[in-house]
Design a protein that fits this description.
It is flat and about 70 Å long. The chain is built from eight helices and no strands. The chain folds into two domains: 1-53 and 76-133 and 198-242, no CATH class; 143-192. The protein has helices at residues 2-24, 28-53, 60-67, 77-105, 111-130, 145-168, 172-188, 202-248. 78% of the residues lie in helices and 0% in strands. α6 packs antiparallel against α7 (172-188). By secondary structure, the chain is mostly helical.
C-alpha cells in the first residue's frame, strides 16, 4: 500500500507540476519580472536620495531591507529551473497529502471524491491564507518573512483541521470546533507591514494575486484528476505483483 501511494502521488504530482511550471512562464513569471523592474527602480531612487542627504541618513528599515538579500538564481535557465523545481516539489507534496487524506477518511479514490478533496486543499493552502496574505508581487509592502511564514503554516493547519471536522463529523461540538478553527486565523489576523508603501502599481499587484490563485486552483484540480486517473493503474499493477508473488511461493 505504501509503495502504491508513493508511486501514484509522485507520478501525479510530477505530471501536474511540470504542466503548471510551463504555465507559470507565460502567466505569473512575466508579472514578477515587471514587479522587479519597479522594485529595482525604487531601490535606485532611494539610494540616490540617501546619497544626496549624506551617509548618516539610512534608517533601520533600510538596514533590514539590506539584510533580507540572500542567494538568488541567475536570470535565464537557472531561474526557470529553480522555479520549476519548487513547483514540481510542491505539486508532489500536495498529491501525497491528497492521497493520504482520502485514505485516512476511507473515501473511494474516484474522480468526484478526489476533486472534492482537492477543493478543500485549495481552500486550506490557497484561499484561506490569501484572505490575510495575498500572493505578493516584488516591490509590495510586506511584514517580516518569519512572521508571515508562521501565520501561513498556522492558517493552513487550522483551516485543514476545520474542513476535516466540518465534512467528516455530524456532532454539534465537532461542527462548532470546525467553525472556530476556520475563523481563528482570520480573527488573529495576518502580520502586516508597518506602512503600505508598495512600489508596483496596484493594478499589476491585483493581476498577480488573481493569477496566482487561479493557477493554484488549477494545480489542485489537476492533481485531483491525475490521482483519480492513476490510482487504479497502480492498484492493478500492485495486484498483479501480488499474484506473481503468490505463484512463486512454495
Amino acid at each position: 500500500m505504501i509503495n502504491r501511494v508513493l508511486a501514484a502521488g509522485f507520478s501525479a504530482g510530477l505530471l501536474v507540476g511540470l504542466a503548471i511550471a510551463v504555465l507559470q512562464q507565460f502567466t505569473t513569471s512575466p508579472l514578477i519580472l515587471k514587479g522587479e523592474v519597479y522594485e529595482a527602480a525604487s531601490v535606485v531612487a532611494t539610494a540616490a536620495e540617501h546619497a544626496r542627504e549624506g551617509p548618516h541618513s539610512h534608517s533601520a528599515a533600510d538596514h533590514d531591507h539590506d539584510g533580507d538579500e540572500g542567494w538568488k538564481p541567475r536570470e535565464g535557465f537557472e531561474r526557470i529551473a529553480v522555479t520549476s523545481l519548487a513547483t514540481v516539489a510542491a505539486s508532489i507534496g500536495y498529491a501525497l497529502l491528497l492521497l493520504a487524506a482520502m485514505l485516512l477518511n476511507g473515501s473511494d479514490i474516484s474522480t468526484p471524491r478526489a476533486l472534492a478533496f482537492a477543493a478543500c486543499g485549495f481552500v486550506a493552502t490557497g484561499l484561506a491564507p490569501a484572505m490575510g496574505l495575498a500572493p505578493e508581487l516584488p516591490g509590495s509592502a510586506a511584514a517580516p518573512l518569519a512572521a508571515r511564514q508562521i501565520w501561513w503554516v498556522f492558517t493552513v493547519a487550522s483551516t485543514g483541521a476545520s474542513l476535516w471536522l466540518l465534512l467528516s463529523s455530524k456532532r454539534p461540538a465537532a461542527l462548532l470546533a470546525g467553525l472556530a478553527l476556520l475563523a481563528l486565523p482570520q480573527v488573529i489576523g495576518a502580520p502586516q507591514p508597518a506602512a503600505f508603501e508598495s512600489k508596483a502599481p496596484a493594478e499589476l499587484a491585483a493581476e498577480f494575486s488573481a493569477t496566482s490563485l487561479g493557477l493554484q486552483a488549477l494545480l489542485w484540480a489537476s492533481i485531483g484528476l491525475a490521482v483519480a486517473a492513476l490510482w487504479p493503474l497502480f492498484e492493478r499493477t500492485a495486484s498483479g505483483d501480488d499474484r506473481l508473488i503468490e505463484r512463486a511461493s512454495p
